[in-house]
Amino acid sequence: MIYMDNAATTRPYEEALSTFEKVNRTYYFNTASIHQEGRNADKLLEASRKQILNLLDLEGFECVFTSGATESNNIAIQSVLKKKKQFGRTVLMSELEHPSVLNTVEAMKAEGFDVKYIRTTADGQVNLESLKELLDGDVVFVTVMAVNNITGAIQPVAEIADLLKDYPKVHFHVDATQAAGKIKMNFSGVDTLSLSAHKFHGLKGAGALLAKQVKSLDPVYYGGGHEFNIRSGTVNLGAIAAMAKALRISVQDMEKNHERISGYSEHLRKAVTGLPSIHLQPGGVPHIVNISFEGAQGEVIVNALGARDIMVSTTSACASKLASLNETLMAMNNKAAVVKGSIRISYSNFTTDEEADMLIEALKGVHKEIGGVLK
Ligand code: PLP
C-alpha cells in the first residue's frame, strides 16, 4: 500500500510509539497526584511542555496540552471571545479555515458576534488588502491558519501580525496544524496557536494550544483545573511525551525532508503539467499537491488510485464525505468542475522515492483510463 494522505494523518514514528508504550508502562501515574510517582510523571509532563515550546521557538508562550487541534481551536476561540465581548463584536476569519475553526466561529454568532470573511487570493492565500479593509475598532479577534490543508498554501502570518500591531485589542489566533514539523515559521506576533501530534508522526488524541497569556484565558468547561485551568481532565502523558518526541525528530530532520519532498512534488507537478484537463492548484509546502481532473469526480480518481493500492483523498478527510464543494478551492475562484474533480496528494517523512515515482505513473494511467469523461 502506498499512503499519500498524510495531511489527514501520518504514520507514527517508531520512536513515538515506543515512548507511548514506555510511559504507559512506567509513568502511568496521574500527573496531579502529589506522591513521588505522581511528581515524577509531572516532571515528564513539564519537560515535554518545555521541549515543544523550544522546538517551535515560542519564547514567552505557555503550552496547554489538549486532545488535538479541534479542541485547541475551540478553547482559544470560545475562551477569548467570552472575555472580549465588552470590547467589540467583530471576528475576522479567512475563508480557508478548517471546520474546527470555521464552525466554532460561526457558532459564536449566537453569542452576539458578527463574523466577516477575509478574502482569498488566486494563490490560496489570505488577501492582505481585504484584511486591511475589514479591520476597524470593533474587531476583537482575527483567525488565520498557518498552512492550508487543501492546497498547502503558506499564509502570511508574520505580515498579518505586523498589521495587527495597530489594533492592540485584537487577539490573533493561528491554526498551525499543517505547519508544525513541516516548515519553520515566525509566530512571534501571534497570541494563540493550535497543533495536533498526529500530523507530524505523533499519536492521535494529543495536541496543544500554545498561548501567550494563558492566565488571562477562562475555561470553556470545568473540572479539576489541570493544564492552567484551561483544559481540565487527567492528561494523556504517554501521547504527550510521544508528541514531544515526534516533534523533535520532525524538527531535527526538517531541512532534509523538506528538500526530498520538494523533489517529489516538483517532479509530480512537471509530470502532469500539460496533460489535457489537468489543473494544478498553486501550492506552498511541498507536502501537499492538489490536482484536478476537470470533468471527472474526485471520488472516481480516488477510487481508481485505490484500485492501484494508492491512498489519496478528495479534499480534506473531514469534508470528503460531504457533497458540498470545497470552500478553499471555491474561494480561490476555481470553476465548479475543477473543484469537483480535485484530489489531494500529501507526502510524509516516510514517503520513498519509489512511492513518489509509482504515484506519478499511476496518475498518468488513471488519466488515460478516464480520458473519455474529461473536459
Ligand atoms: N486544522 C487543520 C488545518 C487541520 O488540517 C486539521 C485536521 O485535518 C485540524 C485543524 C483538526 O485536527 P484534529 O482532527 O487532530 O483535531
UniProtKB/TrEMBL annotation:
Residue ranges occupied by any Aminotransferase class V domain in the UniProt entry: 2-359
Entry's Gene Ontology molecular function annotations: catalytic activity
Keywords tagged on the record: Pyridoxal phosphate
Superkingdom as given in the UniProt entry: Bacteria
InterPro entries, alphabetized: Aminotrans_V_dom (IPR000192), Cysteine_dSase (IPR016454), PyrdxlP-dep_Trfase (IPR015424), PyrdxlP-dep_Trfase_major (IPR015421), PyrdxlP-dep_Trfase_small (IPR015422)
Pfam family, one: Aminotran_5
Keyword Transmembrane helix: no
Keyword set includes Transmembrane helix: no
Matching SUPFAM superfamilies: PLP-dependent transferases
Required cofactor names: pyridoxal 5'-phosphate
Protein name: Cysteine desulfurase
Species per Swiss-Prot/TrEMBL record: Salinicoccus halodurans
